[in-house]
């Protein structure tokens, strides 16, 4: 397909140049086409919306059912709301603990990622020094390599440093694997900020460090929010790294990992309602947070691809 | 001042660089080295065996099966996901009833659709995989009971238990969870295309299909290409979905075995760390070939507007 820089020229090739009355006639035809299309487009859009929501609703529904109901009538509404499964999942199946563990790890890693990422991005974006480009590409290059390739040696690096099955070890690894995107995104952002403000601060006697924390970071807030949401979701939902690096005690697992462990153990016990309750428990907070902050979340997650 | 500046730079860079070096760079470099050894991962002793792992790889049927599956995923997933994403995004932005003085209009409630479509994207892939593992359950799953409900009792496939269906089931889940991301991404791109372009095309008598292929797609090409790379990397990984959803090692009869999961079983179940890193290097090569092809095929004249 030939692409021309002038789209009207490209579209002009579609039909021979039309004179006035013909253009009017076409507009009339297009009008009815618009109505048909409108019905069609609503149809497919609703269909996909159903395909997205039905599995989720099905899980919520099943969480309130008894095990018997789940097996005999998977699509029927629960006969009565059954909350036992929820308390079983929360206490006996450690879901409460998994949730807390995830909060601890992600709080640490998100703070570390944002702090270290913005520091490095700032220096790389706004200072010239020998090796700047090399370090930048060293970081950014990490985005294009699959994590799984490094997994085996990473496991033994952690083991040798006695970091295996510890939260601080996991936090360090999360930070390390979040740095490439964070630095890539934020250094682009820091580059667009005006330099006059930073210069004014320096002239007023602020140190470089102080200028960064008190002047530049507040100015970079929109970028920090975007990349923060991106990192939060990525780290909260991380499955591969804890599966390999956090295999110690049963109750030290993180949420996604613990959920899978729960699926295996409850599967043996046949406690399906407890399992669905656990699943919904893990699902709802994220969905609720997303619905509240949906604009920011969509912007944050797609920011990297739009740049 | 100069002295202060360098101290500041070093102070800000040292910690990120150290963490990155220890946990990212060094494992990557070691991976290449260990791929030439017979290291088990269980004991600290190993020998350098040269290219033996690579020769073993060449004759490993399971390896080639997984490469085949990865290539299939690589071809099908981006095509279907990006196709659906583009289609829905176009419907949302241009598919609406035409209003006065507007050449194109979005459908009513497009904001609502975008919110709903994005749901799977914020969920952990572990949650999604578990959810569908239950939905695919042949006895009590949502799918088969739905089939029974509409009178197709005789069909009821085994889904993940059926070697010829299992991989497609996995793919469907990955499409399901990723389409929303691309709808939002492409919508953002489409809304930045000037309305005059559509108006001009309309005056020239172009219909919607022509408008899509002649205006929307070319102007969106950069975003589509980025999306293609993202989705391709997703297809090359697909570890969580395969590990959680499929039964046994790599599904029935290795029907869902992919490189990432094969690597994981070799390293952490079979105690063949050296061979596992060889698989990792192979995966890296496939990734690089893929990226190269996308870059080469995708190169087009950049449009400024």
Q: Layout of helices and strands, plus pairs?
A:
The complex is a heterodimer of chains A (307) and B (305).
Chain A: H1 7-12, H2 20-63, H3 67-72, H4 84-92, H5 95-126, H6 132-141, H7 147-160, H8 167-192, H9 195-203, H10 208-219, H11 221-236, H12 240-245, H13 255-269, H14 272-292, H15 294-306
Helix pairs in contact in A: 2-14, 4-14, 5-8, 5-11, 5-13, 6-8, 8-11, 9-10, 11-15, 13-14
Chain B: H1 2-34, H2 52-58, H3 61-94, H4 110-117, H5 119-122, H6 125-135, H7 142-149, H8 166-191, H9 195-203, H10 208-237, H11 239-245, H12 259-268, H13 273-298
Protein name (chain B): Sugar ABC transporter permease
Organism (chain B): Streptomyces cinnamoneus (Streptoverticillium cinnamoneum)
Family (chain B): Belongs to the binding-protein-dependent transport system permease family.
**Element order, helices and strands of chain A?**
HHHHHHHHHHHHHHH
What number of structural domains do the residues of chain B give? 1
The CATH class name of chain B reads Mainly Alpha
Stretches of chain A where pLDDT falls below 50 for ≥5 residues?
Answer: 1-30
- Helical fraction of chain A equals over 70%
List the quaternary state of the chains.
Answer: heterodimer
Q: How many strands, what sense, and barrel or not for the largest sheet of chain B? A: none
Count the strands of chain A? 0
CATH architecture tag of the largest domain in chain A? Orthogonal Bundle
Low-pLDDT sequence parts of chain B: none
State the shape of chain B: globular
Rg of chain A, alpha carbons: 26 Å
Number of domains of chain A: 2
Family (chain B): Belongs to the binding-protein-dependent transport system permease family.
Subcellular location (chain B): Cell membrane
InterPro entries (chain B): ABC_transporter_permease, MetI-like, MetI-like_sf
Organism (chain B): Streptomyces cinnamoneus
């Amino acid at each position: 397909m030939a692409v021309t820089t002038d789209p009207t020229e490209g579209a002009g090739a579609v039909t021979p140049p039309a004179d006035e009355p013909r253009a009017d006639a076409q507009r009339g035809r297009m009008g009815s086409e618009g109505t048909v299309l409108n019905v069609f487009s609503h149809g497919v859009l609703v269909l996909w919306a159903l395909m997205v929501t039905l599995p989720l609703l099905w899980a919520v529904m099943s969480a309130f059912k008894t095990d018997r109901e789940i097996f005999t009538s998977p699509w029927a509404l629960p006969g009565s709301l059954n909350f036992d499964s929820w308390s079983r999942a929360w206490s006996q199946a450690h879901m409460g603990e998994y949730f807390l563990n995830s909060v601890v790890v992600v709080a640490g890693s998100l703070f570390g990622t944002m702090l270290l990422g913005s520091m490095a991005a700032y220096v790389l974006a706004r200072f010239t020094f020998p090796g700047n480009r090399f370090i930048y590409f060293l970081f950014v290059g990490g985005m294009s390599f699959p994590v799984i390739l490094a997994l085996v040696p990473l496991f033994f690096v952690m083991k040798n440093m006695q970091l295996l099955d510890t939260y601080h070890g996991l936090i360090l690894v999360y930070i390390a694997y979040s740095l490439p995107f964070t630095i890539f995104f934020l250094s682009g952002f820091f580059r667009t900020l005006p330099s006059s403000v930073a210069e004014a601060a320096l002239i007023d006697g602020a140190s470089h460090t102080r200028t960064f924390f008190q002047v530049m970071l507040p100015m970079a807030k929109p970028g920090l929010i975007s990349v923060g949401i991106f990192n939060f979701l990525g780290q909260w939902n991380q499955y591969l790294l804890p599966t390999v690096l956090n295999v110690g005690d049963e109750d030290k697992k993180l949420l996604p990992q613990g959920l899978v462990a729960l699926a295996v153990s409850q599967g043996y016990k046949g406690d399906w309602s407890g399992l669905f309750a656990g699943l919904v428990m893990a699902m709802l907070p994220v969905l609720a947070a997303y619905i509240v902050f949906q604009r920011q979340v969509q912007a944050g997650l797609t920011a990297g691809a739009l740049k | 001042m100069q002295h202060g500046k360098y101290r500041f730079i070093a102070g800000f860079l040292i910690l990120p660089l150290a963490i990155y070096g220890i946990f990212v760079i060094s494992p990557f470099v070691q991976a290449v080295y260990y791929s030439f050894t017979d290291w088990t991962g269980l004991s600290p002793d190993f020998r350098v065996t040269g290219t033996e792992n690579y020769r073993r790889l060449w004759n490993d049927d399971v390896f080639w099966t997984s490469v085949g599956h990865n290539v299939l995923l690589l071809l099908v997933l981006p095509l279907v996901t990006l196709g659906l994403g583009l289609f829905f995004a176009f419907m949302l932005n241009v598919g609406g009833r035409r209003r006065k003085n507007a050449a194109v209009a979005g459908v009513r409630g497009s904001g609502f659709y975008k919110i709903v479509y994005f749901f799977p994207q914020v969920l952990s892939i572990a949650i999604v995989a578990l959810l569908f593992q239950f939905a695919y359950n042949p006895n009590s799953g949502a799918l088969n009971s739905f089939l029974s409900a509409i009178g197709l009792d005789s069909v009821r496939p085994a889904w993940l238990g059926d070697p010829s269906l299992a991989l497609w089931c996995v793919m469907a889940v990955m499409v399901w969870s990723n389409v929303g991301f691309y709808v939002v991404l492409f919508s953002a791109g489409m809304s930045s295309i000037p309305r005059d372009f559509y108006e001009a095309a309309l005056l020239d008598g172009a219909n919607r299909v022509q408008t899509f292929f002649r205006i929307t797609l070319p102007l969106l090409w950069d975003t589509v290409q980025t999306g293609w790379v993202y989705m391709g990397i997703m297809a090359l990984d697909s570890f969580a979905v395969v590990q959680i959803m499929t039964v046994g090692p790599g599904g029935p009869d290795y029907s869902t075995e992919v490189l990432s999961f094969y690597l994981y079983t070799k390293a952490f179940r079979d105690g063949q760390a050296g061979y596992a890193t060889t698989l990792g290097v192979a995966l890296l090569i496939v990734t690089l070939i893929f990226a190269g092809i996308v870059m080469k095929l995708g190169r087009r004249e950049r449009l400024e507007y």
